[in-house]
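BUG: 3D viewer hangs when loading the predicted structure for this chain

Environment: internal workstation, default settings.
Expected: structure renders.
Actual: progress bar stalls at 90%.

Input used:
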Amino acid sequence: MTSQDERARLVRASRVIEASAEHIFELIADPAQQPRWDGNDNLREAAPGQRVRAVGDVFTMGLKRGGDRENRVVDFVEGRRLAWRPAVPGKPPPGHLWAWDLEPLGPSRTLVTHTYDWTELRDPSRMPRARATTAEKLQASLDRLAALAQGDGL
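Structure tokens produced before the viewer hung:
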């Protein structure tokens, strides 16, 4: 049985975006694009040329508050699903996961679900930031992603 605390540690938001799953996936799978739609206002930059292509890929992001994160891809289906576990470079992932699921609803319409799962996070120093990652922040990422994918820009 799932406890109330575990349910609170699994945060999701979804929305329909008027763009193809392939186009949206390119914005998610290319780390250099991620700061453009980050609703957590956490990502500073990522070097170009890190486009994710498979489970086991690692991409590095610079954070606005300093430091870098290595993101290990743990689930990947081209055009449909991408999930990674962030970690301080050279350290094991502390137990949280970011995931994106795309469900085509037509040639230029896609249901996109963004998930932040911190059910395995045990480091007390990371708990306040994890708790601050709300469905509203995930929704902000989805809204910014939609603006980009639909051609509205940012």
